Every structure is written in C-alpha cells, then in structure tokens.
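Duplicate of #3305? Posting structure anyway:
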C-alpha cells in the first residue's frame, strides 16, 4: 500500500520513463531537503524512489507533475473533441450512439447478415460498411471520453495518485490503493430487469447495487474481482458539462465493500469480495 511504501510493481505502474522518475526525485529532494545526487542507472533510480518514498510529499509531487503532463492535458482537451465527434455522428444520421456489434462477435454478426434472404448483396455490403463506421467512431469517442473522465477524476480528488502510463488494471491509486477505471454505457439489462421502472432511482440511492450487478454480469473471458472505479452512464446523452458536474459531485473518500456471486463456465458458483467506487453520470 502506497501510504507506507512503494515497490517496483507500483513504480512500473505509475512512471512511464526514466526521465519522469529523475524529475520526480529532483522535486522530492527539494521538497524534503534531501542532500544527495540523483542516480543515473535505472536500477539505482528505482532503488532511490523506494528508499526515499514519502507518501504525502510524493503524492503532492506526482499530482503536480501529472497536471503538467501531456496525458492530463490531452484528457482535458478531449472535451471539445468529444463534442465535435458526437455532433458529427448525428450530422451523418447514424442513429443512436450504440455498438452495432460486440468486438468479439464480428464474425457472428457477419454470419447472421449473410443468412438473411430478405435483402440484396449490395444492401448487406452497405449494412456492414455502416456498422464498421459506427464501430470505429464509437471506439474513438469512448477512448476520448475515458481520457477526459480520468483527467477530471484526478483533478477533483486530491487523495489520488495518478499514473503516467496506460497500464492495464491500474489507472490510479486512491488512498494508496490501486483502482482500475471502468466506464459503462449503462447499468446493464440485468439491473433493469431486477428493479424494473424504479431502476433509475434505485441506482441514484444505492450506487453500490449498480457495481454489484456489473461485477456479477461481466464477461467471463475478462472476469476479475479487482478493485474498480466504475463510471456509469444513467442517461445515454450526458453532455461533457454534466460529466464534469457528476464527477465534481461524487464522493471518492471511502469505497463500497462489494460481495457478489459469479457463475463460472465450469458450473461452479463462487462468492467474491472486493471494493469499488461508483460515479454515476446523469443529466
């Protein structure tokens, strides 16, 4: 846990290059009046980061460096790009911003289309062309939205240590603990089926129920019970202004304790325990 120490694992998750590590040490030495030279070899630099780790001072410095970084500024700049991409989508009459097919199911999507006898070959080609365009555009919109959301979350929560690289499984450390940011375009069909017409109000009152349902209904090939920060759309058309408002209004001081059951493909039903934060995006 970063509040007490840092290991090579966390160093690799947080820092993206040798120069960033050296700049961090330079600022830390000034902040803590450490009279020593900064090492030159990567191994010595990592050892020095471990030996001189000071959670509060280190958190302050890493946040300060993050706000100067390309990653942070690219995230903030994505706001205008998102607005442009969404407007452009509707200008091209592409319908609702919804996935035309799951990323892992393109082959099945094409096979179903090929089996249709009610449309011509040319119409099938046009459907695939349009669906592919939709898929590419949504992928681009989601990438920029995720970057924008991550930058906002770090900016508005001073208990977060950010990461300078896109590291799978860890986007930031909250109160010294690692969390993976997961953005969901909705609460999921299982949640709506369970709570019916009241699902919206239930989600607002009990965000942890949303997290439990998303853990329970995740795809098995991507299954894990690791701590997450769920960012969930309650409304499909949330503007960038309302995204920021929702993040500013969120409380990331204490995570929810989550216990959920998962039915694995080997027919075993296991109970998993984890903890997470939930940010609900709505108008």
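Output from current build:
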């Amino acid at each position: 846990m970063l509040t007490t120490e840092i290991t090579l694992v966390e160093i690799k998750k947080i820092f993206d290059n040798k120069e960033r590590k050296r700049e961090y040490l330079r600022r830390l030495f000034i902040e803590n009046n450490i009279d020593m030279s900064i090492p030159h070899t990567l191994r010595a630099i990592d050892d020095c980061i471990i030996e001189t780790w000071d959670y509060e001072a280190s958190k302050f410095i890493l946040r300060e460096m993050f706000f100067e970084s390309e990653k942070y500024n690219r995230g903030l700049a994505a706001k205008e790009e998102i607005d442009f991409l969404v407007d452009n989508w509707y200008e091209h009459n592409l319908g609702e911003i919804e996935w035309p097919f799951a990323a892992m199911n393109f082959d099945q999507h094409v096979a179903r289309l090929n089996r249709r006898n009610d449309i011509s070959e040319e119409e099938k080609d046009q459907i695939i062309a349009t669906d592919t365009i939709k898929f590419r555009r949504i992928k681009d919109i989601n990438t920029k939205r995720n970057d924008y959301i991550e930058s906002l979350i770090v900016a508005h929560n001073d208990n977060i240590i950010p990461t300078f690289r896109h590291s799978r499984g860890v986007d930031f450390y909250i109160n010294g603990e690692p969390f993976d940011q997961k953005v969901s375009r909705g609460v999921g069909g299982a949640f709506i089926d369970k709570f019916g017409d009241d699902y919206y109000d239930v989600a607002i009152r009990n965000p942890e129920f949303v997290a439990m349902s998303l853990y329970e209904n995740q795809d098995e090939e991507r299954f894990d019970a690791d701590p997450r920060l769920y960012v969930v759309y309650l409304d499909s058309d949330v503007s960038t202004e309302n995204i920021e408002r929702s993040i500013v209004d969120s409380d990331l001081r204490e995570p929810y304790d989550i216990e959920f059951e998962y039915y694995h493909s080997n027919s075993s039903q296991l109970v998993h325990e984890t903890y997470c934060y939930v940010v609900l995006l709505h108008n």
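Confirmed duplicate; merging threads. The mean pLDDT is 93. The first helix runs from residue 8 to 14.
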